[in-house]
Design brief:
The chain is mainly beta. It is built from one helix and 13 strands. β6 and β7 form a beta hairpin. It is rod-shaped and about 80 Å long.
Length: 187
């Protein structure tokens, strides 16, 4: 022991220290490995637009194909009428147009919660159009039969035909059937 050193301290020469460090690095490289994982994300990256009154169905999944336990909207607002079902599908029938933003949260057993922010546009239902817009004239004493069709809007069409003609009859399937009794446009 050299003078000025505390008992039990060993001072190796610098060359020996470098050799010892190289051996430690080789051993640690053989024992440990570092793996980099790609960030797991919720897919799709963007949600397709929807339309008020039309069924919406968008499956959600994880980018590596693994499964999640359940998915829910953690913050923000889902469009009214849409929900996450038990199979991880954003489904339902939107009831109101607008732009909605929310954070989807997929709960997993292996990775914890995976989140993604989404914005979805729900377009309004197209306007209701009746065809024909005016009914053609009929002849006194002759059967009259005219089909009226409805397009646009949302949901199932409901037909209500109001006729102010003597001898009238109507059907709710969109057909006006009657036999005009006289030629008076004001009756």
């Amino acid at each position: 022991m050299k003078s000025g050193q505390a008992p039990g301290n060993i001072t190796p020469p610098l060359a020996a220290l470098g050799s010892l460090l190289r051996r430690l690095l080789l051993v640690s490289a053989a024992v440990f490995s570092l793996s980099a994982f790609a960030q797991l994300t919720l897919t799709p990256a963007e949600l397709p637009n929807g339309q008020q009154g039309l069924a919406y169905n968008q499956p959600m999944s994880l980018s590596d194909g693994s499964s999640f336990v359940y998915i829910y909207a953690g913050s923000g607002t889902l469009p009214p009428g849409l929900y996450f079902d038990g199979a991880g599908v954003l489904a339902g029938t939107p009831t109101a147009p607008g732009t909605y933003s929310f954070t989807a949260v997929a709960a997993t057993n292996a990775y914890g919660n995976i989140t993604r922010d989404y914005t979805i546009l729900i377009n309004p239902a197209p306007p209701i159009v009746l065809s024909p817009t005016t009914l053609p004239g009929g002849s006194v004493g002759q059967p009259y039969n005219q089909t009226v069709t409805v397009s646009g809007g949302s949901g199932q069409p409901f037909y209500y035909i109001f006729l102010r003609i003597a001898g009238r009859d109507y059907q709710t399937n969109g057909q006006a059937k009657f036999r005009p009794a006289h030629n008076d446009k004001n009756d």
